[in-house]
């Protein structure tokens, strides 16, 4: 069982990655399904509005804060190499940094940028919308699973 600053870091890591898992999961199972039920022009317009609102401090602090916590955990663990919990702490960090943060940068954001350039009612937007929904949601599922797995692994470091 880990203790001291590692315990605090693991608890904070568990909370932040767990919160992000909930955000990503809710988005996949509620928001994206709701948007898919709209006519394409309305879905595109709504998703573009959602993507713009995601850049607000509330979401960015949680999303980037979780990444920062995971990076700190990884660096401190790697440098100090504690007797207990090393594998769990490094794995928990890698899961979020690669599976949530990395997937966001390489999978979701590029699709958001393409969608943002399209006029919601245009033939291009209507054609792209089903592909966007399918691919974006698939990447988002991965973010949810990776974030949840990260939280679970951090909890395992605590026991």
UniProtKB/TrEMBL annotation:
<feature type="transmembrane region" description="Helical">
    <location>
        <begin position="87"/>
        <end position="109"/>
    </location>
</feature>
<feature type="transmembrane region" description="Helical">
    <location>
        <begin position="59"/>
        <end position="81"/>
    </location>
</feature>
<dbReference type="Pfam" id="PF08592">
    <property type="entry name" value="Anthrone_oxy"/>
</dbReference>
<protein>
    <submittedName>
        <fullName>DUF1772 domain-containing protein</fullName>
    </submittedName>
</protein>
<dbReference type="InterPro" id="IPR013901">
    <property type="entry name" value="Anthrone_oxy"/>
</dbReference>
<keyword id="KW-1133">Transmembrane helix</keyword>
<keyword id="KW-0812">Transmembrane</keyword>
<keyword id="KW-0472">Membrane</keyword>
<feature type="transmembrane region" description="Helical">
    <location>
        <begin position="12"/>
        <end position="38"/>
    </location>
</feature>
């Amino acid at each position: 069982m880990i203790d001291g600053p590692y315990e605090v870091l693991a608890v904070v890591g568990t909370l932040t990655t767990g919160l992000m898992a909930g955000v990503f999961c809710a988005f996949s199972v509620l928001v994206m399904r709701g948007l898919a039920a709209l006519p394409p022009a309305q879905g595109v317009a709504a998703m573009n509005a959602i993507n713009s609102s995601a850049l607000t401090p509330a979401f960015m602090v949680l999303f980037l804060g979780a990444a920062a916590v995971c990076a700190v955990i990884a660096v401190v663990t790697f440098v100090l190499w504690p007797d207990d919990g090393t594998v769990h702490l490094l794995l928990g960090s890698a899961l979020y940094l690669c599976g949530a943060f990395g997937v966001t940068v390489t999978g979701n954001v590029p699709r958001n940028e393409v969608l943002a350039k399209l006029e919601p009612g245009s033939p291009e937007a209507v054609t792209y919308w089903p592909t966007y929904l399918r691919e974006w949601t698939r990447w988002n599922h991965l973010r949810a699973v990776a974030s949840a797995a990260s939280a679970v692994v951090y909890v395992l470091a605590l026991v």
